Amino acid sequence: MKVFRRALKIKVIVVVAKCEIFYEGRAASYAEPHTRLIIVKTDGTVLVHERDGREPLNWQPSNSIISITEEDGNVVIVSKRIRPPEVLKIVLHEIYALMITHLSKTKLRVLGTEEDMVRQVALNPSIIEEGATLVSREVSTPHGRIDLVLRSKNGYLIVTEFKRSSADIDAVYQLRRYVEYYSKFHVNVKGVLVAPSISPRAQALLKKWGFKFVKRSPPIK
Amino acid sequence: MKVFRRALKIKVIVVVAKCEIFYEGRAASYAEPHTRLIIVKTDGTVLVHERDGREPLNWQPSNSIISITEEDGNVVIVSKRIRPPEVLKIVLHEIYALMITHLSKTKLRVLGTEEDMVRQVALNPSIIEEGATLVSREVSTPHGRIDLVLRSKNGYLIVTEFKRSSADIDAVYQLRRYVEYYSKFHVNVKGVLVAPSISPRAQALLKKWGFKFVKRSPPIK
Fold first, then answer.
1. What is the pLDDT averaged over residues B174-191?
2. How far apart are CA B136 and CA B133, in angstroms?
3. What is the ipTM of this complex?
4. Which residue in A204, A181, A206 sits closest to A192, CA to CA?
5. Are B16 and B36 in contact (CB under 8 A)?
6. N or C: which end of chain B has fewer CB within 10 A?
7. What was the pLDDT predicted at A108?
8. Nearest CA in chain A to B34
9. pLDDT class of B2 with cuts at 50, 70, 90
10. Alpha-carbon torsion (A158, A161, A165, A170), positive or negative
């Protein structure tokens, strides 16, 4: 009991227990004793999960008042809201596992698009190769649209292909089509694939054809 | 690794880990390595929870295809959907706790109202007292509406007060008003309080005034 109470508001309580659940608020419900996963968060949120599905079987929102008591020898978790009046009562008949754990509070970072990646490199072509300069963006060819064309400081043309997630062999084939297309007009063309990661097969193909991989993720918005 | 894989589809995996999360689907997001609670259900549902709030930080719906692999020495949970294309990738940098547990799959039972309780007793007044018969339902008095009036087999009038949840002293006072009201016309009146439970103070008051408590819950719909 003490260990539960001390954990409230500071740590997250995760319990697997055979439990019986009484809810009364805008509606009323009852769940017979069965094995469930109960999560009590630091802000008073309570979630009761079962085997399947995204939605909890029962839940109480944040700012609920949690109390943990004993009743007929069972640990009882009660979550109350005043407005609207709502009570969720969980009677733990048997506790199979108990975790009292610290959890983080972070925010998701929404990642930029492929276009955002291209824009960043266009503003600073040295990301691809020291001293490179911008030739053109979104260059249409009979084989597709090249994201970015640069020129290296010793006169090579650099054609690029950007992927916002892991690059696979399709991306390498795509890059090769662009390189072959430009090779008809220019003697020296380099191919560069830009992505946050690359599959082993794509990496091998890239190496075989003498192209370069630049590891780069979409910018965080 | 094996223990994880064997658990898939049969048991629920609950992990507390320092993890990094990559999501790409209709949008894209990234969550830096932090301590989170990850739940992988038998139907492929994935939930990632943090310290506060009802909503998971990341989630994948049921019927997602889960694979658990190793990457650079880290356990990696990948959840994929084909339509719409969506990938959630969780890289576990450090595992602090791991539970592989059976959980139940039940349904909430929606409980009936106070009216449903009254209706059941009206159909079978012996629930209150052996041989009792129905006199009247919803009897208006200057002191409020009596849920049910019965007559005992030896001629007593039985006035009742129903509560769908725990009865407190207000319920006992209410019952007393009805008993006193009827006592003006009838010599013998009994008071009965019907509820799933009663507070200790209400119980004491009930005893003091010679009323009876009948333990009864709202019917399950």
1. 90
2. 9
3. 0.70
4. A206
5. yes
6. N
7. 87
8. A104
9. confident
10. negative
Which conformational region is residue A65 in: left (phi greater than 0), alpha (psi within -120 to 50 degrees), or beta? beta
**Rounded to a whole number, what is the distance in Å from the CA of B168 to chain A's nearest CA?**
15
In angstroms, the CA B187 to CA B184 distance is 8
Interval B110-128 mean pLDDT:
91
Kindly report, residue by residue over B78-97, the tens digit of the pLDDT: 999 988 889 999 999 999 99
pLDDT value at position B83?
Answer: 85
Bridge partners for A167 per DSSP: A198
Give the residue from chain B lying closest to A10, CA to CA.
B51
- Average pLDDT rounded to a whole number, residues B117-137: 94
Q: Are strands B189-195 and B157-162 parallel, antiparallel or unpaired?
A: parallel
**In order of start, what are the domains of chain A with their CATH numbers?**
2-101 (2.70.180.20), 114-215 (3.40.1350.10)
Cβ contact B52–A31 (<8 Å): no
Q: Output the CA–CA distances (angstroms, integers) from residue A52 to A60, A111, B28, B169, B173, in the order listed.
A: 19, 30, 25, 42, 46
Instruction: Calculate the CA B194 to chain-centre distance.
Output: 21
Task: Identify residue B122 by its one-letter amino acid code.
Answer: A
- Residues in A closer than 8 angstroms to B62, CB to CB, are 52-54
| Exposure b/e, A148-157, CB count within 10 A at least 16 = b | bbbbbeeeeb
Please state, as a whole number, how many other Cβ atoms lie within 10 Å of the Cβ of residue B10: 10
Parts of chain A with a pLDDT under 70: 186
